[in-house]
Amino acid sequence: MKKIILGIETSCDETGVALVEASGGLRWTKFKVLKNLVASQIKIHEPFGGVVPNLAKREHLKNLPILWKRCQVSGVRCQDIDLIAVTVGPGLEPALWTGISFAKQIISNFQFPISKLVGTNHLEGHLYSFLLPRKTRSKFEDRRSKIFPAIALIVSGGHTVLLLMKDLKTWKKLGETRDDAVGEAFDKVARLLKLPYPGGPALEKLARLGNPAAIEFPRPMIHDKNFDFSFSGLKTSVLYFLREYPLGSHLETSPLLKITNADIAASFQKAAIEVLVKKTMRAALEFGAKSVMLSGGVAANKKLRSDMRQAIRKLNSDMRHRTSKLKRNMGYVKSNGRVNFLVAEQKYNTDNAVMIAAAGYMAYLRKKKYPLRANGNLDI
Fold it and tell me: Mean pLDDT over all residues of the chain?
């Protein structure tokens, strides 16, 4: 039976409202996007070099009624909405409260039962983004046996988490960052390089012009046996490098050290991505994963997507060669099969209400109830 889900996202600096049609159950779920609206606040926060919580709250209050009014779909009445999924965390609490309050107001205006309102975990939104529709039909539709168990890497400005996902309702955290999230490290290094806001995309763009082998920045915890991450030391090493070779001085003019700002960006990006990829591949091998999932705002980084895809190809090639050798030496050997790479379309990696609608529907199916209050530190 199909259900219409209204998604509301206000965890940070983007206001999102979406209408999504959901069908299926916990064995397999399908989503159809009826409307997806996002209001960006980049211009508002740009002069400050980062997100100002109270300004974000003000903009959400202004944007939500406008987006709700625009979120009309032919053939779908407001009364037809089966569930309202609203982000309750993690995120900026002043921003989160605007979405929660607005969702409650809709419940009141249409005299819906409060049971229609589903508090939704923002990280679960990223996690379930691989289920969202693509322009081209996915070969994994209706083939969940080809996906699980999966290793899921969620990378954003506030989080870096590695999960073992057994099915659509069961997962286990393998590791997370012990200090800065990788997206936070990108933003901080971008500020050190005097790049415009938002820093992450600006750094990625600059890195395309640089030599990633110019500087050997550290790869924190890359050889540790656990699956945790640390990016604070990497960020600090860039800071120390820039103290020794200040921007705009001999960095770009010395014949002895012909290193540009683009080289610094590329070298930093290479170090950060290498840690993410190596740990993810090790987890995929150790837990016999059938797929690797990549999601979150940093998943929009083309270099990360490319390197992850290349590493998976190498992993598959190595497994084929190993299986072939065992067959020659021992006869028939059952192969673990091919590891697949799942990543959402670019528009669903950054914050949006479609993924919140999807996660809200999954929470409804799982009978998972998050309190309808803002929780800036909500975990997955």
Answer: 91
Looking at residue 99, its pLDDT comes to 99
CATH class of 144-306: alpha beta
Cα separation, 165 vs 147, in Å, equals: 9
Q: Is 17's pLDDT higher than 50?
A: yes
How far apart CA 19 and CA 106 sit, in angstroms, is 14
Q: Cα–Cα distances in Å, from 8 out to 95, 115, 227, 262? A: 12, 16, 32, 38
Q: What is the dihedral of CA 223, 227, 233, 235, to 10 degrees?
A: 110
Residue 36 CA to residue 18 CA, distance in Å, equals: 4
Q: How far apart are CA 48 and CA 18, in angstroms?
A: 29
Looking at residue 90, its amino acid is: P
Give start-end residues of each CATH 3.30.420.40 domain in the chain: 3-134+345-366, 144-306
Q: Which SS3 state, helix, strand or coil, does residue 104 take?
A: helix
User: How many CB atoms within 10 Å of residue 302?
Assistant: 11
Q: What pTM value is reported for the model?
A: 0.92
For domain 3-134+345-366, which CATH number applies: 3.20.20.300, 3.40.50.300, 3.30.420.40, 2.60.120.260?
Answer: 3.30.420.40
Chain-centroid distance of CA 92 in Å reads: 17
Model pLDDT, residue 259: 84
Q: What is the mean pLDDT of residues 367-373?
A: 96
